């Protein structure tokens, strides 16, 4: 499971765009959004880098959470 910090994710619209970007590279990915902490958890078989790259392209730069 991958946890990413997305400081620019602030609302429901952002959460939808983030989910769409993640599922565009892995349709089977399970996505969990927490707007309060501005984090997203991803449970998928794909490589972590494809998700961070897709989010960057979508306008939501992400960093891998240390937790």
Automatic annotation (TrEMBL):
UniProt KW keywords: Metal-binding
All residue ranges annotated as the HMA domain in the record: 1-63
Stored Pfam families: HMA
MF-aspect GO terms: metal ion binding
Domain of life: Bacteria
Stated name of the protein: Heavy metal transport/detoxification protein
